[in-house]
Amino acid sequence: MTLLLTSSCARPLTVVPVSTDPVNGMKLRYLALGDSYTIGESVEISQRWPVQLVTRLRQEGLSLADPEIIAKTGWTTDDLLEAINKADPVGPFNLVSLLIGVNNQYRGRSDDDYRRGFIALLEKSIEMAGTNPAKVVVLSIPDWGVTPFARGRDNAKIAVEIDSFNAIAKEETERAGSTFVDITPVSRRAAQELRLLAGDGLHPSDSMYAEWVALALEPARKALRH
């Protein structure tokens, strides 16, 4: 999946500490963890879904710093965990989002392997949220099998494997006391709605990201209140 593996715009953003005390007029902090879907492959920086989410929350009067992003196109669960450990972001964060797994699926890795990697990342996310699982929001893996990039591949097999990974993520997220947001149905509409895809025929467009944000908005609000 070449487009998931390389990108000139897929560098993690620098993590800059920001004060976390909104009572004293200081900004809330948000850390977004993931892969190409979080770094916003093939869309402008302003259209990345974490950036759109912050924009919406600011419109509601919340004082948020710009999202701090650790994500890169092509990353698996292992890659993301290694990158977090290297970046060593300074917490606690008021909100942490996690969206990871498509590259595990693409590379044919097992359910058990994904579960181990996901649990490690979820635990790390909760740790960075001040050990408060209610401040962590997990998004499901989109289904790239419906995109033009996947033509000639076994679309049904891709869907089954992604559904299996998402079931694992949902189970572990809810067990930990965090919130799971299912954006996969939106991604599958791209089979008929090409406006939901970026120009590369694989990654989401700003329109699809906006729909993800609409689904994640209330969970994000709740997380910020905890």
Summary of the model, kept short:
With 226 residues, the chain is an alpha/beta fold. The chain has nine helices and five strands, in the order H-E-H-H-E-H-E-H-H-E-H-E-H-H. The protein is globular.
Q: What's the SSE pattern?
A: HEHHEHEHHEHEHH
Q: Biggest sheet, in brief?
A: 5 strands, parallel
Strand fraction: 5-15%
Give the tally of β-strands: 5
Task: Give the number of helices.
Answer: 9
Derived structural class: alpha/beta
Question: How would you characterize the overall build of this protein?
Answer:
Helix content is about 45%, strand content about 10%. It has helices at about 1-5, 35-40, 50-60, 75-85, 100-105, 110-130, 155-175, 185-190, 205-225, and strands at about 30-35, 70, 95-100, 135-140, 180. It has nine helices and five strands. It is globular, with a radius of gyration of 16 Å. α7 links the parallel β4 and β5 (about 180). It has about 230 residues and is of the alpha/beta class.
